[in-house]
Design brief:
single chain; 208 residues; alpha/beta; TIM Barrel; 8-stranded parallel barrel; 7 helices; binds D-xylitol-5-phosphate; binds zinc ion
């Protein structure tokens, strides 16, 4: 299992990113919130762009914004492996997926807890990653919505049916207990579970 670490809930971002860089975590998950798509706002790009000074890890960018096209070029300029934006946005989904790919970055869609996996069908051929949210977007530290298990299993079946090898990532409330509900995923995003501990590596290892 791949592990991507979110620092949305961090009290000391620089310190925690440096500590994460010393672990074997696969990616740093960058939660970008514009204050409109969800009721929270992240640090601005002018600050986040300095992240390369503190980590050599590749970034897994999760855009929780109404206008992904404004943010994609910015985050494509960092050490980015994935850019994921939400299916629930108003902009042209296909255009934005193509925009991400134009930078040779892997592209994905995220779905909120109430969004059905079938809504992803038109975009499956463009997807390298699908991020299933197991909490409502906005804040770290929320509890994993257990119904997400059925959704992940259903999504895996859908990908097999359409012969798509996109990876499934699960984000929100992930810990050593809730990971049991994510057996069909290949990446887990975890924030509080890692960041609130004194031993980041131990928590990361427990998710693998
Ligand atoms: C929620 C974010 C998540 C979150 C994960 O809007 O997308 O990435 O910060 O944090 P935990 O693991 O604390 O739920
Ligand atoms: Zn996230």
């Amino acid at each position: 299992m791949k592990v991507s670490a979110s620092f949305l809930n961090s009290k000391d971002v620089v310190k925690d990113i440096i500590k994460l860089n010393e672990t074997d975590v696969d990616f740093i998950h960058l939660d970008i919130l514009d204050g409109h798509f969800a009721p929270n706002k992240s640090l601005p790009f002018s600050e986040l762009k300095h992240i390369y000074k503190y980590t050599s890890k590749r970034l897994d960018v999760h855009l929780m914004v109404e206008k992904p096209s404004k943010y994609i070029p910015l985050y494509a300029s960092l050490n980015t492996e994935y850019i994921v934006f939400h299916l629930e946005t108003e902009e042209d989904i296909e255009e934005n997926l193509k925009l991400i790919k134009s930078y040779s970055i892997k592209a994905g869609l995220a779905i909120k807890p109430d969004t059905k996996v079938n809504e992803l069908i038109p975009y499956l051929p463009y997807l390298d990653i699908i991020l299933v949210m197991s909490v409502e977007p906005g804040f770290g530290g929320q509890e994993f919505i257990v119904e997400t298990k059925e959704k992940i299993d259903e999504l895996k079946k859908l990908l097999d049916t359409y012969n798509i090898d996109a990876i499934i990532s699960v984000d929100g409330g992930v810990n050593d207990k809730t990971k049991a509900l994510c057996t069909k995923a290949s990446m887990l995003v975890a924030g509080s579970y890692i960041i609130k501990s004194d031993n980041f590596q131990e928590k990361i290892t427990s998710l693998r």
